[in-house]
Amino acid sequence: MALTTHKLSVLQGVGLLVSALLGSGVFIIPAIAANVAGSWSLLAWAIMGILIVPIVFTFAQLGKLYPHAGGTAYYVQQAFGERSGRLVSWLFIWVVALGTPVITMTAANFLQNALIALHLLTSGTDFRLLIAIVMLLLVLVINLFGLKTAAIIQTVLSVLIVSTLLFASIDSQLHHSLTLPVTEFNVGNIAFAATFILWCFLGIEAITHIADDFEHPQRDFPLTIFIGITIALVVYGLISISLLQTGFYGGQENNLNSVVHLVEASLGHKGYILVNLAGFCTCFISVSLYFVGFSRLLQSMGKQQQIHDAFTRLNQHHVAYGGLAFAVMLCFVMLLISYFIDLAIDNLIAYANGLFILIYFAAGLAGIQLLPGKSRWIAVVASVTCFVLFLGLGKEMLFAVILITILGGYYTVIYTSNNRIKTS
User: Fold this and answer.
1) How far apart are CA 162 and CA 18, in angstroms?
2) Is the pLDDT of residue 93 over 60?
3) Shortest CA distance to 63 belongs to which of 355, 408, 353, 296?
């Protein structure tokens, strides 16, 4: 049964999706891709822009025909059974655990920059961990008031953020000649840059969990995805060109602040403050959407008696508060771990990407099984694309391989044995 809340419009859906697609990605991925592949990173962006189309189409069709809070896990369950659906659910749980600390710390970095520029914090101090924790609490409070309220706030912020980024990138290109750095062609570097670029499109999975929250899911959900992807590609493309022109990338700290320096060059000190605040808001929205999707997934798992039914309980705003609180707690724990062992952002992104590619691959396989006609063949292309991207991760895919092996072993041996005992 579909899990419902107050309904969303296409505009609000686009606001949520664009914010999720930009997220922390717009502030770090163009710089990381440029650092990996130089000017050839533009080719990686073009390739990913093409390869993402069948994946987007497959998600749009699955969400249109099977709107459900379980998202990809539900599609896989419909195609291949409950055991496979559970496995995908746990992959998404691990993605949230690995991915949200990246976005949260990126947001904290931006807000700290803005507070220092406003002389509210002393230069040289580091309050990013504290800011990140406060941010998580704020995400929790806002989302407890319901998706409709969060969507309205996030749509307004999305318009402001996209406008700021577009102005800065266009202004930069008008004041610099179109001269790109000379970079040696390397297929491996281009492929590796493409796997990082995939991070920028990972909001598609998160929004599948709210497909049934649209007024007309069969019409509004696919439209939301295609409009959101188009806007995000334009913003990413312009920013990537601007960073290559200006050279604002290289090394983790430079990559983390690349777009900040780009906007500062166009708008000065006020622009520096503005883009840091915009960066914080973008990351805030992205984390918020992931937590909503996560809570919906747990709610769906609870409905199917896969986990404790406490995760199915709703407050007066129709929010699954148990799953939302668990998402915040999980991110908090992983945030502390990654902060104190000083785990590089690039590594966290690569590990999360490996899991996300597997989730997308599973969605493609589900599309082959569930979708009719030409849509099925497009799902075949999406599946092949995901498989190639997974191989492109190189050694970074080992974490995903190990995790899927452990989960697969559990659901093949232990889970099956427990079910036999219960039925005997």
Assistant:
1) 9
2) yes
3) 296
